[in-house]
């Protein structure tokens, strides 16, 4: 089984989403023999944002990295994403990574009946951190966006583990992290694609 681990926080060791995503991955390492883990830190190794030159493919290094990003995603059975909420949505580095996954003929296609996802059969676990309380509120553009984009790719097995209100107080942060760690999604067999 292959697991792709992505982190998007810019906070390094102070990142709650990194702490949660690492805990999810460690749980999988402990419980799934032979697990292959591929890791990408989008702060240390960002994916180039899409530009007109991206489509012209004038930068060989950008083309190669985009191909690698897509290949790693398509090969993964499980994708664990450390996603802090920045300005009510996802980090721009995570959006840039997602933009490299949205490739017609690879992760989706259009038909006369509309779009069809081509990357189903994966499990996506999002480890989310938020300074405020946003779940179910109109200020949450993170969860709905991530659910929609992965559904567009044909992935409906998307779970969230989150610590919210971590900026309210040190105690609230500690409690939110403890609650999130206690609620980590368990490894399980994936349905056949």
UniProtKB/TrEMBL annotation:
Belongs to the azoreductase type 1 family. InterPro entries: Flavodoxin_fold (IPR003680), Flavoprotein-like_sf (IPR029039), FMN-dep_NADH:Q_OxRdtase_AzoR1 (IPR050104), NADH:quinone_OxRdtase_FMN_depd (IPR023048). It catalyses: N,N-dimethyl-1,4-phenylenediamine + anthranilate + 2 NAD(+) = 2-(4-dimethylaminophenyl)diazenylbenzoate + 2 NADH + 2 H(+); 2 a quinone + NADH + H(+) = 2 a 1,4-benzosemiquinone + NAD(+). Its cofactor is FMN. Keywords: Flavoprotein, FMN, NAD, Oxidoreductase. FMN binds at residues 9, 15-17, 85-88, 129-132. The lineage of its organism: Bacteria, Pseudomonadati, Pseudomonadota, Gammaproteobacteria, Lysobacterales. Homodimer. Its EC number is 1.6.5.-, 1.7.1.17. The gene is azoR. PANTHER family: FMN-DEPENDENT NADH-AZOREDUCTASE 1 (PTHR43741), FMN-DEPENDENT NADH:QUINONE OXIDOREDUCTASE (PTHR43741:SF4). This is FMN dependent NADH:quinone oxidoreductase.
